[in-house]
């Protein structure tokens, strides 16, 4: 069994409303199929399962903290975003970037750059995260500017295409992000929201001069 950790911005930052932390992956449940499917086995092994699961979580959390320190030191993009958050009045420090277990709906490997771009948008435009259109705009910008749709990443996902690959990736992943909103999981709500705001939000590269 393995547990995945992702980055998020802490709710303790006074300049960011609590809703900004919707981007955080949190409150993980530990799923052990072989045990969950057998209540008797679950009862008899509950103590050892809890102990082993906690050890795995502690190990993964320690690895995530090391990864965070490395990114803060070596990632030019993360340093750039931290500097720009400070410029707009929402300074973040190491303590505001937390490692937390992903829930069952997220695969893990959460890109910290995406969280910082969400934080920047929330600080500068006061995003209503419950609005499909505003959430769609934030998702488009975050995916577009974070490097999430670099050709190498898309190739590993098996989604690489030559013509307009970047735009297709941003659109697809923005839709997936909006579908996490209650009421947007089914139907065309997410697709429609992304379509409505696409042009203005895809072309908005603030605080970058162009797509990194």
Give the number of helices: 8
State the major sheet. 2 strands, antiparallel
Q: Segments where pLDDT lies below 50 for 5+ residues?
A: 1-45
Q: What does the average pLDDT come to?
A: 75
List the helices and strands in order: EHHHEHHHHH
Share in helix? 40-55%
Largest sheet, spatial ordering of strands = 1-2
- Helix vs. strand class: mainly alpha
Question: What is the rounded Rg?
Answer: 19 Å
Protein described:
Helix content is 55%, strand content 5%. The protein has 2 domains: 1-112, no CATH class; 128-212, no CATH class. The chain has helices at residues 33-36, 39-74, 76-87, 112-125, 132-146, 151-157, 165-178, 189-202, and strands spanning 5-9, 97-101. It contains 8 helices and 2 strands. Mean pLDDT is 75; it is low at 1-45. The two termini are 36 Å apart. The radius of gyration is 19 Å and the shape is globular. The protein has a two-stranded antiparallel ribbon with strand order 1-2. The longest helix is centred in the N-terminal third of the chain and has 36 residues, at 39-74. It has 212 residues and is mainly alpha-helical. The relative contact order is 0.14.
